[in-house]
Amino acid sequence: MDKVWILISIILLASFVGANSAYQQVIVNVVPGFLNINSPTNQIYQTNRIILNFSVITGSNKVKDVWLIEGKNLEHLCSKCTEYSKETYFSNGYHQITIKSEFFSGEFVQETVNFYVDSSSDVYILNNNVLKKATAKDIVNYLFNYNFSLVYKNELTPEDSCSINAKNGNATFNGEGFGNNNKLSFYSILSMQQGQGSFSAQMSRKRLSFNFKVKETIENSETTMKLLVIDSTGGESTIELNKMNKTIIIIGNNLSIKDMKVSSIEGCGAKRSNFYFLENNGKQTNSIEDVRKTLIANPIFVGKYEGLKYLFEQYWRIHRVFNWW
User: Fold this and answer.
1) Where are the domains of the chain?
2) Segment among 7-21, 184-198, 240-254 with least mean pLDDT
3) What span, in angstroms and rounded, lies between the C-alpha atoms of 106 and 228?
4) Please, are residues 83 and 55 in contact by the beta-carbon 8 Å criterion?
5) pLDDT band at residue 99, thresholds of 50, 70 and 90?
6) 106 and 129 in contact (C-beta within 8 Å)?
7) DSSP tag of 13
8) Is the CB of residue 307 less than 8 Å from the CB of residue 136?
9) In the chain, which residue ranges form alpha helices assigned H by DSSP?
10) Rounded distance, CA 256 to CA 57, Å?
11) Mean pLDDT over residues 63-74, rounded?
C-alpha cells in the first residue's frame, strides 16, 4: 500500500509543477500491481516447514498464474489468486526465493526475499564458564526456571566431551597374534586435545597394557574420528573410530588392533560451523503456558529432543482433555 501512495504522490506533484511552470515533462511508470511477501521474512528459521504467504494487489488486471522461483527451480503455486498461504518445506541452508505473479495482460510483478533455515544445529549452554551441549534435562530446567534468549552463533561449535569404551577385536603385537581379549577406554572433558585413555590386551598369561594421551586430532567428522596418540614411552599410534558401524582400529609401530566393537560412546561429535546458544538472563519461575509458548516460538527444542516432545505432548493432551486452561 506504501507503493500506491508513492505513485499518487508523484501524480499530485506532477500536477502542481504543471500548474506553476510554462513547461515541465514528467514521466510516470504505471505498474500492473503490487506483490507483498508476508512470510518468510529475512531471518533464521529453526524449522524446515515454513508458511509461504503472499498477497497480490491489482487494479483492473487479473492474475493468471503465480510462480515460486529459486535458482533454476520453478514451481507453480496457484492460478487466478490474489492471496496464498501454505506450509512449505525448505531445506537447511540459505534461500533466495522470488514470487512472480503473471497477469492476463502479459505483464508481471515479482518480489524476492532471502532467509536462512537451520533445524539441525545443536543447542549449547554455559556451564561453569565452559560451553557444553545442552541435554534434554538442561532444556527443561531453562524452560521452567530461567529467563533466557536463544542466540544463533555463526561460529564453530565447541569440541564435545568424548567418552568411548570398546572391546574385543583382533590384536597383533610385534607380528604375533594377541587374541581378542582387548579393552579400550578413552575420555576427554573439555577438548579432544586433552583426551586420554588406556588399552589392555591379554592372551593366556601374556598381558599388554599402556596409557596414552592425544597428540593431535587428525579428523573428526560426522562419520569418522581419527586421533594420533602417544604413550608413556613416546610411541605413537592412530586410533580411528568409525561412527557409522561403531568400530575402532588402532595402528602403531608394533601394534595393530582391528574391528574393536564400541560398547558405549557419549559426545565425540564433529565440529560444525553454527550453533544455538541459550543466553541466561536470570532466574524466574515459568508456568506451563509460558513453556508452551516458548516451545512454539523455538521449534528447535522439540526438533532436537524427542523425549521433550513426547513429554509435553502427553502433558498438554491431559490438560486439553480436562480443559485446565
Assistant:
1) 31-117, 162-267
2) 7-21
3) 66
4) yes
5) very high
6) no
7) H
8) yes
9) 2-19, 136-145, 288-297, 300-304, 306-321
10) 72
11) 96
Whether pTM exceeds 0.85: no
Task: At 138, list the grid cell.
Answer: 538442561
Strand-strand pairing, 93-103 and 247-252: unpaired
What is the CA 124 to chain-centroid distance, rounded? 12
Residue 191 phi/psi, 5-degree rounding, is -155, 160
pLDDT digits (tens, 9 = 90+) for 196-237: 999 998 888 888 888 999 999 999 888 999 999 999 888 899
Cis? peptide before 158, omega within 30° of 0: no
How far, CA to CA in Å, does 37 sit from each of 41, 102, 111, 269? 8, 15, 7, 38
Count of H-run helices and E-run strands, the chain:
5, 22
Integer Cα distance of 227 and 135 in angstroms? 26
Closest CA to 272 of 114, 54, 121, 100: 121
Burial class (CB in 10 A: 0-12, 13-18, 19+), 75: exposed
The DSSP symbol for 303 reads H
- pLDDT band at residue 276, thresholds of 50, 70 and 90? very high
User: Which three three-digit cell numbers place residue 273?
Assistant: 560451523
Find out whether 219 and 229 touch, Cβ atoms under 8 Å.
no
List beta partners, residue 150: 278
Give, in words, the CATH class of 31-117: mainly beta
